[in-house]
Amino acid sequence: MEILTQDFYNRDTLTVARDLLGRHIVRRVQGRELICRISETEAYIGRSDKACHAYGYKRTKRSETLFAAPGTAYIYLIYGMYDCLNFVTEPEGEPAAVLIRCAEPVSDADVFSQIRFSCNFDEMTAYQRKNFMNGPGKLCRALCLSRGQNGLSLFGDELLVTQGKPAKAENVKTGKRIGIDYADEATDFLWRFTLSENA
DNA sequence: TTCAGGATGTACT
DNA sequence: GTACATCCTGAAC
Predict the structure, then answer these.
(1) In strand C, which positions have an atom below 7 A from any protein CB?
(2) According to CATH, what is the number of the domain A6-195?
(3) Contact A83, A145 (CB under 8 A)
């Protein structure tokens, strides 16, 4: 189980977003170890992207984490109820990150389903199965992450990313990002990456 | 199976 | 006061 180093994150954000597909997130909490495989990401780059919280290098209390060292977790509250997990990229001082939108369980799936729906994996309804971890808010719930973990290093024990099973280039699809209609021309940037082998 | 609408609180203007 | 990188419920088909 090889942990991705800071060099991995200290690169162009679009490259990192693409390269994160298929990697494994390891989350250790309350004596449990949760492992899942990343299947959908989006890039957010402050210097050119109106959808990014730090657009134009704007520093606020919230966006501060985006300026941190590569390999930092940026977790923020959205719509009053849900948390979104991002990994900070590029050199310290460059506000950019990759949003993790979707993943699938690798370790014991019952642990995930217990956290999310308080039942075993094979007891979930078809609806729950379809909506298991296919969105940033759901993913954070399943991994027990909230903005209390904002600023966490990805090189500690609680949260890290390993080599996993990297996606092949032909299985990566690009598309427009979700939920950023307000962002003018940035709305059309093809900065969303999905594993096409994934339903 | 799809759809509309409500929940909810923080950051920022 | 407004907008927000969303999700869930319940009703209609």
Answers:
(1) 3-8
(2) 3.10.300.10
(3) yes
